[in-house]
């Protein structure tokens, strides 16, 4: 999980959601698409509320009240994160092939797709121009994934701004209960073992899924903006072993 986010979002960075989804087999792509659509339905009201709280000033006033209380909640939530099983899990030096993260991490790909599209759609609906919404959603995701790969969630939260960290905790606390039933209904084929049973799919469904992925506004805008960028790096950390990453 720690390194999987960085791997799948490297595909996202280089070629958007289209490229990330194209790394999956056809059956896995359709499964990831359906999972992402289900998560978007569950989480959309929360994304919209979070955006409304930012626009209205409610988020800022809540955060500033905690700042006046010497960051009581912020530091409490940071400490709780540091004690989670994910943070306490030993780091492995096992070599995991890049494609394995895609094949056995279909849910992770679906989560990235759902999160990026929802963030983008919510910001655009709030009046933020498409280009800015792209940079604040898809473009930022690989950068966050990189910090997780280096130092897990606790250090990620330390590195980002206090404002972003505070919002992260608030969103996390609200999102987990919403996703509990959804996650409980998942099987290991989407996170752990990968899908089996052949690669046959309905052609019409695959064409429709591909069309929906590629025609989304974040893909259209993103392809244009990425065309202006040169010198993409992004491969160095992925080549390093986990131990080497921690030394950087």
Detailed description of the structure:
The chain has 248 residues and is an all-alpha fold. It has one domain (4-242): N-(1-d-carboxylethyl)-l-norvaline Dehydrogenase, domain 2, CATH 1.10.1040.10. Helix content is 74%, strand content 0%. Helix 1 (4-22) crosses helix 7 (106-125), helix 4 packs across helix 9 (141-159) and helix 7 (106-125) packs antiparallel against helix 8. It is globular, with a radius of gyration of 18 Å. The two termini are 19 Å apart. The model is unreliable at 233-239 (pLDDT under 50).
Provide a concise account of the structure shown.
74% of the residues lie in helices and 0% in strands.
* Envelope shape: globular
- Our count of domains comes out at 1
Question: What is the distance, rounded to the nearest whole angstrom, between the alpha carbons of the first and last residues?
Answer: 19 Å
CATH topology: N-(1-d-carboxylethyl)-l-norvaline Dehydrogenase, domain 2
CATH superfamily: N-(1-d-carboxylethyl)-l-norvaline Dehydrogenase, domain 2
* Quaternary class: single chain
CATH arch. level architecture: Orthogonal Bundle
Give the ordered list of helices and strands. Answer: HHHHHHHHHHHHHH
Number of strands: 0
How many helices? Answer: 14
The CATH class is identified as: Mainly Alpha
Low-confidence segments: 233-239
Give the biggest beta sheet.
Answer: none
Which whole number gives the mean pLDDT? 92
How much strand? Answer: under 5%
Rg calc: 18 Å
